[in-house]
Structures are given as structure tokens and as C-alpha cells.
DNA sequence: GAGTCTTCGGAGAACGATTTCCCGTCGTGG
DNA sequence: CCACGACGGGAAATCGTTCTCCGAAGACTC
């Protein structure tokens, strides 16, 4: 009736559970004839090892928790895909938790995953500050890798794109195309990617345009905010002449860029003639917007592969706990599309950031 | 050092593990004074029940497997979000598996989830035919709910949108707007949503346009295919005059519609003046395309809620195995946008399909 | 030929919770 | 005064593996 167990197989082939376990797990050599008998019996009964029992005994579930701020952010599906495939290849399963961008939910999800005895956690923290406590507590209990965003220094291993380099690619590209009056639409809050991109913009753009730091609008990573922010920037101080308007709208991510684009078009601003627009992440939407958005592509596969590698080191490595923490910064790539390029017919070109 | 167990708590408060378990699980009344002592000890030690041990003993992991064809299809993230939230509310965790649109991978993922003793499975099958065997085998072992797509009759409980009703909404809307020459770009293969939408198009469109069934292009659910298919349709037979071109391009989903839109614009076809374009699903991309795509919105929250409810009935319900299988069809909603509406300034309107 | 290895297999103790018995101790009614 | 039920609590079996001991038997060395 019910699922056959090791006992059933042992009974069927007339030997002990220990022997069956050894044959099936291959942990110790077993006589040829016995091996054959065990294999046959297991096959005939359709025996499948119970992973829960195995996990209890071996103190390892072969399961990794993946904690995301909001899976509906179009940047994450690809990441999830790459991660699950990488982890499945190591015979690990993925417990998924979505946090609805709320640090409190995030803390409770992490707690729940730990209670389920995950072997490790992959966390994209909601917020650098408000996630820090829960993440640090979790990192003290299991190997933990921060992904895409970080969360205070020295908390855990971390893999992310080099936001500063990415922003530099964008700004250099815009400057090379003759843009001189920059503005930035980003996300408020302390989310590390938001903060890093903002800081990189301030630092780099000021070199090209002394007033760049004064034209910064901060909201959240959404299409709606992109629209609203353009409204604010273009409402501007009274008496502003067209010549004072920004000619380059640098956005904190692609969602914002898409919103900005919509609003600019509605205001009758020619893209890219009167204003160039750039995004960040290279989500699918960026390439179907009209005009297609120039953006910074994150190396998602590498991100996932490195995260899996870091986990593996901690889980199977020589010195799991004592090994020094690693922080990896991956080089992004500029994807030039029609929203900044004067010639919409030229094929989109990409440019890799220098490897650091 | 290591995580405290029931034994540790029992030792700390001077009573037996049985008592501690009873207090914490609340399975049997325990004296007031003892209860207090146990609670304090548990609190002080920071005791957290080990879910793996609990699962082994109680034969229930509180875990549900979610099997998706391809999480990078923008329709799924919202579904995943709703599902995880609904299941977390029932104190269940979600093991996620992505199949890369491959029935073989799907079968192996399902097998792996079953070995991990999931209490139930939520499956969006890759293909109605080639997924049937693995899904049926799984359904025989645990409660299983098919989501969004089905997979042969009588295999398992199933919740999906009413594709036929959705297609009817689209076609009626187009006909009411005076469109007369329909064409359809869909997905080949036996995936149930692909097949149902295709069939519904054939049946319904023919009523408005006798030639509708002759203008069908089948590929896959992607932007690229949308572009390519438009190329084919507009390449058409030699000598075709503009008056013979379709004036309505009905697409199997939004991705296809976006691709179609791009190609039509490139060909210089005015949207919606010369040709209307419609999609299906209402993914975020549909509303940011230019022009925004008229589409059929799937009731994703309801889909998730109903799936969770079906699972719950099987898991906690009166007669888990014997209860008759249920097939739910949810009513979709038409979202009219600029790709079919002559007046781009009028706010997008929505129209609910009649509840059946 | 006696002692020492090696090899193969079994018995049984974990792992950490739940749950079924069972045993005292009261209180109470006959 | 005794029997009986209710109640609080403990001992131990159980879930299905893994893994550590142990023992027996054959192979080898000196």
C-alpha cells in the first residue's frame, strides 16, 4: 500500500537494513551477489529513499532558501531561473519566499526557512539597514549569500553587479554623445543598489555637469515613479527655458526609465533628440519599449553561478565557518539602444565594463 | 552551542520531553505551573522546533511543490507571488521548480519533489500530452492541482482561466469596432492554453469572417515569433492588395502581440488605424508597449486563491482521495487599450466576461 | 599453525519530534 | 472506607534513514 521503506526492501531480499542502505548509498563496498539482490528488490518494490528521514539523520536537507524582495520585479525571474538550475544541478531544492518589499515579512520568512532546516540561504535583502538584523542572525546559523544587493559590511558573502562601474558606463556613453545636462531618477531608501547607483551618479555626473547633483529625484523602482518624476523635473522652476532642461535622464532601473519615457513622450519631448533616457538591469521590457531603452545589463548567469559556487564552498568546502567572507563585484555591460542613440537603424551595440 | 532540542528544554525545566511537546504543541492540557515553567525554559533557550523531525514523525512536511514551465514567462511571477503568499498564510512553504519548457526536466523535477515528501503539488504542465504521464503518476501519490493549463481529462483538480470566453471577449470587441479581416498568431503544440485559444479563435472568428480560419500562424509564445509571424502574414500571396490585409491581429499571448506590434510598425502599418492588435494575459509589458496592447486579463489572484483552496480541501478536508475531481474555469476580463481603440486619449476600459 | 588483517554483514543506537500507553494522585459518590 | 473517574505527567515506541560498533570467516604473514 504505502511507500516501501528500507525495511521492506531488506525483508524482501533477506538482509539487513544496514546492508540495503550501504548498497543504495554506496557508502561502503558490499559483496557482488548481495548487491545484486538488493538492487533487484529495491527495483521491484519501487523503493525511493525518504529524504525527510535522510535529512533528519544526516542533518542536511539538501535544500536552500531563496528570499526575494518582490518576485514581480521583472529583474528577478531570470535570476530565479538561473539559480534554481544551478542548484538543481547540485541536487539541491529551492524553497522560495517573497517578501513584498517588507523587512518584517522578510524576517519572518527567513525564520520560517531556518525552522525548515534549510542548509543555506540566498537572500536579496529588501533594505540595507532594516534587513541587516535578520540577515545577520540568519548568517550566524547557516551559510548565507547576499545576492544583487548587499546589507552592511561584513555580514555575509555577497555577489552583486558593480553598480558604480555600470553607472560610469552610462554616463560616459551619454557624455560621449554630447549630453551635458544630466538628471537622475532613482529610488529613495537605503537599498544598496539604489544607494550605490545614486552615489555613482552624483560622483561621476558632476564631473561632466556641475549641476548634475541638483537634478535628482528619488522615489521607488517603479514605472509610476518614472512618470511622476519626469513631471516634477519638467515642471521645474518658473521661467525655465527649454535650453535649461536636462538632455539626459539617467534612471535607477529600467522600470523607472520606461515610465520616464512614457511621460516625456506625452510632454512631446523627442527621444533621443531632445532628451536621452537610460535604465539599468536590462529587463525584457527595456527592449520592447518605444524607443528601446539604453541600459546596463547585469550578468545574471554569472551572478547565479557565483552565488551557487560560494554556497557550495561553504557547504562542502574545507572550512565552512572560518573561511573569510567574500564580496564579489561583477562587471556589467552597456547595451546601447534607440533611447540614446541618434540613429535608430544602427544595430544595438554593447560595451563591456573593464574587469576590475 | 548547537540548536536546542526538546530534550534540552525538558532538562532545563525539569520535566519530560512529552510534557514539553504537549505544552508547545498544545495537543493536551497541561498544568498551569508546569506550562509556565516550560514556556520560560523554551523562551530562554531560544528553542525552535525542528520541522524535519516533526515532518518525519507526523508524515507531513507542510511543503508544497510548485512546478512551472518557465518562470521567465512574464505571466508567472505574479502567479508565483500570489501562490506563495496564499500558501504561507496556511503555514506552508513552497519548493520551486522550473522546467525550461521541457517535459523531461519536468518529470525529473516532479520526481525530486516527491522524494522530498512534499504534501502536495501545484503544476503548470509544460504540454498537455507529453506531461500527462508524469503528472498522472504524481497525482496518484499526492494531492495535485493543475494550474493555468490542464493536461488531459480527469487527471487531477484543475484551475484555469476560461480561454474560450477570453477569446470571445476579444473577437466581439474587435467586431464591434468594425474589424472584419481577422488573423491569429498563436503557439503550436498541445499546451492546453495554446490549443484552447486557437480553437476558440477558429470557432468564434469564423462567424465574423469566413476566411479567419485560413489566416493562422503557429509558433511559440515569444516576442520573436510575433515579429516573424507578422512578416509571414504580410508577405502574403503575391499581388495582394492592401484591402486584403488583415485589419485585426489576434495573438495567443501578450509576448506575441508585442512582437507583432514591433513588426507592424516597422512595416509602416498604422496601429490601430490599419490594423488592431490584441494579446492575452495582461503582463506588465502589455501596458508599456507603444501603443499599449488590448488584452485579456487573467484573474491571477483568484486563480491562486482557488488553487490554494483546492489544495487545502485535499490536505485537511474530509475525504482527501475520494472527493470527485474539480475543474474550475475563471472568467477573464477584457482590457481595452490603444492598440485597438481609435481614441488613444480615452482611458482604458475593462469589461468582465459573463460568469458562467 | 597461530596470530593478524581484511572483508562482509548484522544489531542497534542515534536524529528530534509526536503520541500511545501507563501510573500515580486527587476528588467524589456510594 | 473503598472504588472509580479525571487529570497531570513520564517512559518508551515510532517515523525511515545513516552510521558506529561488533562478530564471523577467510586470507595472509612469520
TrEMBL record, chains A, B:
Keywords: DNA-binding, Repressor, Transcription, Transcription regulation. GO terms for molecular function: DNA binding. PROSITE patterns: HTH_LACI_2. InterPro entries: HTH_LacI, LacI/GalR-like_sensor, Lambda_DNA-bd_dom_sf, Peripla_BP_I. SMART domains: HTH_LACI. It comes from the Bacteria. Residues 4-58 form the HTH lacI-type domain. It holds the Pfam family LacI. PANTHER family: HTH-TYPE TRANSCRIPTIONAL REPRESSOR PURR-RELATED, LACI-RELATED TRANSCRIPTIONAL REPRESSOR. This is LacI family DNA-binding transcriptional regulator. The lineage of its organism: Bacteria, Bacillati, Actinomycetota, Actinomycetes, Kitasatosporales.
Amino acid at each position: 500500500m504505502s511507500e516501501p521503506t528500507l525495511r521492506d526492501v531488506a525483508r524482501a531480499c533477506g538482509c539487513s537494513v544496514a546492508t540495503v542502505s550501504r548498497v543504495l548509498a554506496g557508502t561502503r563496498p558490499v559483496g557482488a551477489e548481495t548487491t545484486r539482490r538488493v538492487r533487484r528488490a529495491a527495483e521491484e518494490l519501487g523503493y525511493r529513499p525518504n529524504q525527510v528521514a535522510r535529512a533528519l539523520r544526516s542533518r542536511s536537507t539538501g535544500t536552500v532558501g531563496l528570499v526575494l524582495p518582490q518576485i514581480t520585479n521583472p529583474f528577478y525571474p531570470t535570476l530565479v531561473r538561473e539559480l534554481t538550475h544551478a542548484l538543481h544541478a547540485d541536487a539541491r531544492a529551492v524553497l522560495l519566499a517573497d517578501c513584498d518589499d517588507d523587512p518584517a515579512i522578510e524576517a519572518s520568512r527567513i525564520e520560517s526557512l531556518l525552522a525548515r532546516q534549510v542548509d543555506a540561504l540566498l537572500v536579496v535583502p529588501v533594505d540595507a539597514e532594516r534587513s541587516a538584523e535578520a540577515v545577520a542572525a540568519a548568517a550566524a546559523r547557516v551559510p548565507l549569500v547576499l545576492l544583487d544587493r548587499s546589507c552592511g559590511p561584513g555580514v555575509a558573502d555577497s555577489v552583486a553587479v558593480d553598480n558604480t562601474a555600470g553607472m560610469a558606463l552610462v554616463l560616459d556613453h551619454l557624455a560621449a554623445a554630447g549630453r551635458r545636462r544630466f538628471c537622475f531618477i532613482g529610488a529613495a531608501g537605503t537599498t544598496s543598489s539604489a544607494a550605490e547607483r545614486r552615489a555613482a551618479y552624483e560622483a561621476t555626473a558632476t564631473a561632466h555637469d556641475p549641476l548634475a547633483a541638483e537634478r535628482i529625484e528619488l522615489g521607488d523602482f517603479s514605472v509610476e515613479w518614472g512618470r511622476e518624476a519626469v513631471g516634477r523635473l519638467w515642471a521645474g522652476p518658473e521661467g525655465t527655458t527649454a535650453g535649461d532642461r536636462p538632455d539626459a535622464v539617467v534612471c535607477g532601473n529600467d522600470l523607472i526609465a520606461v515610465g520616464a519615457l512614457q511621460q516625456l513622450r506625452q510632454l512631446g519631448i523627442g527621444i533621443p533628440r531632445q532628451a536621452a533616457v537610460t535604465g539599468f538591469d536590462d529587463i525584457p521590457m527595456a527592449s520592447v519599449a518605444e524607443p528601446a531603452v539604453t541600459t546596463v545589463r547585469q550578468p545574471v548567469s554569472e551572478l547565479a553561478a557565483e552565488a551557487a559556487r560560494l554556497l557550495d564552498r561553504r557547504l562542502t568546502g574545507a572550512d565552512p565557518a572560518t573561511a573569510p567572507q567574500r564580496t564579489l563585484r561583477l562587471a556589467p555591460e552597456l547595451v546601447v539602444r534607440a533611447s540614446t542613440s541618434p540613429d535608430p537603424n544602427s544595430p544595438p551595440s554593447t560595451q563591456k565594463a573593464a574587469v576590475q
